[in-house]
Model the fold of this input.
Amino acid sequence: MNLEKEKCLNALEEGEILSRDQWKILLQAPTKEDARILAEKASKIRDQQYGKRIFIRGLIEFTNYCKNDCYYCGIRRSNLHASRYRLTQEEIMECCRIGHELGFRTFVLQGGEDPYFTDERMICLIRGIKEAFPDCALTLSIGEKERESYAAFRQAGADRYLLRHETADDDHYRLLHPPELSPKHRKDCLRTLKELGYQTGAGFMVGTPGQTPDTLAADMEFLQELKPEMVGIGPFLPHHDTPFRHQPAGDVGLTLYLLSLVRIMLPKVLLPATTALGTASEDGREAGILSGANVVMPNLSPENVRGKYLLYDNKICTGKEAAQGLEELKASMASIGYQVVVDRGDYKKNTA
Ligand code: SAH
Done:
């Protein structure tokens, strides 16, 4: 590692706020050796904070209807080839029942921005899940809403919210989204979620068209300022029915490097080895853990809809039952020295 990079890394480890230039130094053409050094540091920090325990989240992709038209996403409204579905409350509750039986203590409701799921319907769903599974955490990932809606969901019992900022650079944001979506609104949503007491997740894709060391530096600056409890990072993967169909996929090595940087910057962060990472590379999720991640989010959606929540091509969605998938995950985590645990897996508060 060159001296300049090493200095910036030391500053980051000391908890200093890095300047744009310092971030750019850290992000400029990382070598394999740089990645190795960072992964080692990040792993050590994760082990100090959470041990060898890996938290699992049961992901329920409950609707793929979406009113938005993000250029990268396979379930964008303009994709007329997407086969649309939404789960009923009963079907969602059944996913939770199966998941609970298997040892999941967090459920993540993720979906497109589907107007069918009004605040009223969401509140009913949140209450239903929290009443039936009081020992579980509930995470929402349903996009941008007004403060009143976020507050009502929180009141109804939602604990966490995932809303990747996608990119912290305004021009880059506009390259990835149609004009009706605003980078400022997305960031405001994240700040609101934090204010309302959600454990909040931001994040971004790696290798989206137009991404540069400068935009990545802006992402890291934004994360350093927001201090989210969770950060989702995965490679961009093209989908054949989107405007970005011919764009190259994001780099797995750079994704892992960024996971390590995030762990070093935010030692207690809940950091998933994402599905996109597992799709881009066969041992992607394991590599994610070895780079500092401590969360995996297996799919709990019913098998008949799993093949329809296609944000990108070749998404891993085996016909496997949740139970079998989980057994395999436990075995693969064990093979690298980690243990999948039955736990809500909350953000570690500032206790000594
Ligand atoms: N509607 C919700 C959930 C979006 S899907 C929301 O707006 O937050 C969850 C994440 O998948 C997105 O935030 C995006 O970062 C990621 N994603 C979408 N399309 C992708 C693609 N083509 N490749 C990789 N990740 C993608």
In short: The beta strands are 53-56, 58-63, 106-111, 137-141, 160-162, 199-206, 230-235, 295-296, 339-341. The pocket of S-adenosyl-L-homocysteine is lined by residues 72-73, 110, 112-113, 141-143, 163-164, 166, 205, 234, 236-237, 239, 276, 311-312 (CB under 6 Å). DSSP finds 14 helices and nine strands in the chain.
